[in-house]
Amino acid sequence: MTRKQKIIQSAINNKIIDNNLTAIGIMDLDRLKLTVNDVYSAFPENFTHTFAVKANALVSVLASLRKYGMGVEVASPGELKISLAAGYSAQDIIFDSPAKTINDLRTCIKNDISLNIDNLQELARIDELMIEFPHTQSIIGFRVNPQIGSGDICSTSTATATSKFGYPLADNNNKQKLVQLYTQRPWLKSIHTHTGSQGCALELMAEGVKVITDLAEEINVTIGKQQIVRLDIGGGLPVNFASEEISPSFKTYADILETQVPILFSGKYQVKTEFGRAIVAKNGMIITRVEYTKSSGNRHIAITHAGAQILTRTAFLPKSWPLRITGFLPTGEQRTDSLSQVVATDVAGPCCFAGDLICNNQLLPKLEPDDYVMVHDTGGYYFSNHFDYNSLPRIGVFAVSGEDDNLKIHNIRKADSLADVLNKM
After folding, report:
1. What is the C-alpha separation between 263 and 210, in angstroms, rounded?
2. Which helix (H) or strand (E) holds 363?
């Protein structure tokens, strides 16, 4: 029996999921630690690693990542607040957002939180704040858009010619202007790029990193000393949602970077990564109960309690964000083709629109009422996000740790069932 099968059996046997709490998210903290170890083993010591908080903004998960040795990259005041609640200190945080207010900038610079500048108007604000806080320890740099093109998913490609993110390097005379801006500001000590994540080839991501590395070298030569000391290579790895295989691996990405941008591995620069989805996705799962089944147009339909309110990306963009489904009997035994007839199935959620589907026309062992469905690889951007907060019942989130034969499951985000809500009225 696999670890995942034991987790779902434990959740059922301990009545963590039942006819009252009908959808839960689970993070496997032991597997999360192994993933972080894989990151650190793939790169040399001059690399430091931050976690993109937007991928999983649960305090307990962030606190675990802090314990495992990761910093955080935050993209909003809310994410900053959550990270501080998880125990992160200023030197372990970097603030990225294309819409920082003057108060956001002041908070960062006053409190020595590092940040990346998105545009020239933001730079003008920071110029004023640097007069106000001349001794700040914030490491500040520009986010550069290398404008090298898109991956397979446009919405996760951030280095296109018209991307909303960063300073467009290839437009007009922008490269020369940026060199001049750094020359005039000795407190600009970093440079940042983010080519994309899901749907982006590793070679494309490495190309973006090479652009800013070459630019950093040019700036430092122009200044006559190494003013830029940090290269912030944002962007996460794509995740394989088709199987249990972890592909690509962090080591694969490191090898491609070393081939295309060898100076990163020389120790000359501090290099900061900002992995998100690749850290958490495969260490989380959603489990939901099948409430009803029916047939329509010769299609078997299983209605569950997890849909667009939790699996938002998949419901609205199913071709870009397909997910794997595994069915389980009420006892926790996996439904297989030896136990059940395999039929074309729609696994549906509880929301009142036609596109509220976890999967569409997928061949699955026939699901029945009171079965359970496991949705794999959902540890990032699914149950950890805010979208399900207005749903009833709201999904509960649990953490699991321990050896396979001695699993410990504990609640890290409470959810009220509909009955609980009505009883409070």
Report:
1. 9
2. strand 357-365
Residue 203 CB: number of other CB atoms within 10 A? 10
Concatenate the DSSP letters of all residues of 77-103 into one string. HHHHHHHHHTT--GGGEEE--TT--HH
Q: Which CATH superfamily is domain 3-27+282-424 in?
A: Lyase, Ornithine Decarboxylase; Chain A, domain 1 (2.40.37.10)
168 close to 107: Cβ distance less than 8 angstroms? no
Residue 352 among the catalytic residues: yes
Q: Is 182 helix (H, G, I), strand (E, B) or coil?
A: helix
- pLDDT tens sequence across 2-16: 999 999 999 999 999
108, 154, 351, 352: the active-site residue: 352
**What are 374-383's pLDDT values in tens digits?**
999 999 999 8
The CATH class for the domain spanning 89-275 reads alpha beta
pTM over 0.85: yes
Helix (H) or strand (E) holding 142: strand 140-145
Report the distance separating Cα 80 and Cα 70, nearest Å: 15
Q: Is the pLDDT of residue 198 over 80?
A: no
Q: CB atoms < 10 A from the CB of 99, how many?
A: 10
What is the per-residue pLDDT for 250?
96
The residue ranking higher by pLDDT, 414 or 192, is 192
Q: Using the predicted structure, report yes or no on whether residue 154 has a pLDDT greater than 80.
A: no
* Pure H helices in 171-290: 174-184, 202-223, 250-260, 277-280
Cα–Cα distance for residue pair 7/31, rounded to 1 Å: 13
pLDDT tens digit sequence for 261-283: 999 999 999 999 999 999 999 99
CA–CA gap between residue 256 and residue 262 (Å, rounded): 9
The per-residue pLDDT for 231 is 97
Q: How far apart are CA 237 and CA 201, in angstroms?
A: 9
pLDDT at res. 389: 43
Specify whether the CB–CB gap between 25 and 398 falls below 8 A: yes
Supply the DSSP symbol for 155. G
Delimit the domains of the chain by residue range.
3-27+282-424, 89-275
Q: What is the dihedral of CA 297, 300, 301, 302, to 10 degrees?
A: 170
